[in-house]
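Appendix C. Worked example: EF-hand domain-containing protein
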Amino acid sequence: MLKLAVVAMAWRIFAMKDSDFEALLDNMDLSRDGTIHWHEVMHSEGFDRLPKDVKKKFQKAFTKADRDEDLVLTMEEFKHFYRDTERIMEQRDLKLVNEARARLKEKAEQTQKAEKLEQEL
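Step 2, the predicted output written as structure tokens:
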């Protein structure tokens, strides 16, 4: 089921139109210069609630997307950045789901052991 969700997310990103990216960029573009600066990413909605490791990955994605190294992202660079950050979040979600599954499995095993011990007494 989770793999299907990952495929669906990848397809959604692939199917995004230029107008979708324009709207996303416009939403983040605090300076209204038609580009995205790193400080605008840091001030975007929800960024402050991200874990430090994810923020660092976002910063690396920003640097990678900034192909001309002018410290701002044009529309084409922003598309690459957005796709990379979606993958970063997808990987984080998958990690969280796997951790939760492991905890639930451990809890179920402990419950079974406790029930077995109780039956033996």
